[in-house]
Amino acid sequence: MDNSICQVYEDEIQSLEEEIKLLAEKYEDGQQESIFFSDEEILMSIKTFQKEFQGPSKRHESPSDLKAELESVEKDLSFLMKFTGIQFTSHSKKTLEKTRNRTMQKHRLKGNCHSLSFQLEFQLLETQNKECVSAVITDLSIIMDSGEDSDMRKFVSSIEEHGNLLTFFRSLSSYAEWYEHRRCTFLHFK
Amino acid sequence: GVFTHLEMLEARAHEAAVQQEEKEQEEEKLAGLKARVEELRLRRDELQAKVDLQQKGQLGKEGVVSDAAQPSARAVLEWKIKSVKAMLQVFYLTGNVSRFACVLPTAAFWGLLDVQRTGMPGWSGGWGHCTLRAASPTLMDSLPSFAFQKLSLSLQEHFSDQIEGTLQRNSLCNLLVFNYNVSSKSETFPFKVRLLYGDLSCSLPTEVVISCTPDAPASLAETAAAHSDLFRRVALHKAFRSFGRAEESGD
């Protein structure tokens, strides 16, 4: 019957819609990463935007709204970096799969915690069910600059096996702090 | 004889007409679906081409704006906000945020995090609430006071005409006490509210006590009850916003 042809079309429509969502996200991510504006350019844009904008606000976000939002998120970021001692110097993500309930992304992170540098790569699978989203980390690989240390290597392998980023950063944070203390102490005695 | 025959012919004709109509409807539906498929295929191919081009690195800054060769100031700012937010998200992803229930009426970005079995925070949608999770003892200690500082500054900034004086908090940072003004019949009366956030995993207070001055009119007791209920149900900044709106509409 024609019902089967209908079904075929409907299935294709659904798969095309998901493909389009995935491609749109890939494009967005790519756009975001392919461009870069320096701090001066950002400052100049703020000034230009405020000048350009005259009269009653036609759009939702006026220049002062955007500027306020930028300041707010930058303050939050600098707070987090200050308190965790962690600074992420580069981050790239690739969307591998995107359906209605599942998103699979590959992340690459570089950064340092106090004086210790690290590089991470992992896959993140986000599944949506009812009201909550669950996130699972797989394929975690970590490279530490101070990787020659055998204890560090053991620690890193165990983290890679369990995919527990929280433990990694928590331990790295306190290890890095003590590392710093030790370094300062030794310097003091020189 | 003749009439029965005529009736039969009529019935057949009617049935044929109905069948014809159904057939046409089906064909229309199929045509519609086919058109949609083609439309989507076209869009998919366009996007694919854009992504391929991007991969080859040919779409530079031009890709940001629709027509002009120079990205607009707004586009630049939006790019910057997006990249800072992405970095913040990395902090969440990697579990580097503290688990403390508080209301941060700042960027709607914070959303509501739900800690899953893997110990990784995930998104649960929602706006203006924040449940954070500790990565280190220092962070856990500092975040409540930071969060409260931020909360009080935010509240005072946005609702300065309603909130009197400074917000008080206790050392555990789970108790918030402040005064705010309520107007009734062109007179204003101070309400003193005491919010206890007894459950750290919930961003709403577990206990709300509102008291008014003894000379306040009896009608205000109803208002106090309504406000008390509101504080229990919605985030603090939302509650204040709705008070503001109620006053504007001349409640």
Automatic annotation (TrEMBL), chain A:
PANTHER family: CENTROMERE PROTEIN P (PTHR28577:SF1)
Gene: Cenpp
Stored InterPro entries: CENP-P
GO cellular component term of the entry, any: chromosome, centromeric region
Keywords: Coiled coil
Coiled coil feature spans: 6-33
Designated name of the protein: CENPP protein
Coiled coil recorded as keyword: yes
Keyword Nucleus included in the entry's annotation: no
Pfam families cross-referenced by the UniProt entry: CENP-P
Transmembrane annotation, as ranges: none
GO term, biological process aspect, one: CENP-A containing chromatin assembly
From TrEMBL, chain B:
Annotated localization: Chromosome, Centromere; Nucleus
Superkingdom of origin: Eukaryota
Coiled coil: 6-57
UniProt keyword list: Centromere, Chromosome, Coiled coil, Nucleus
Primary location recorded for the protein, binned into one broad class: nucleus
InterPro entries documented for this protein: CENP-O
CDD domains in alphabetical order: DRWD-C_CENP-O (cd23836)
One GO location term (cellular component): nucleus
Protein family: Belongs to the CENP-O/MCM21 family.
Name recorded for this polypeptide: Centromere protein O
Organism: Fregetta grallaria (White-bellied storm-petrel)
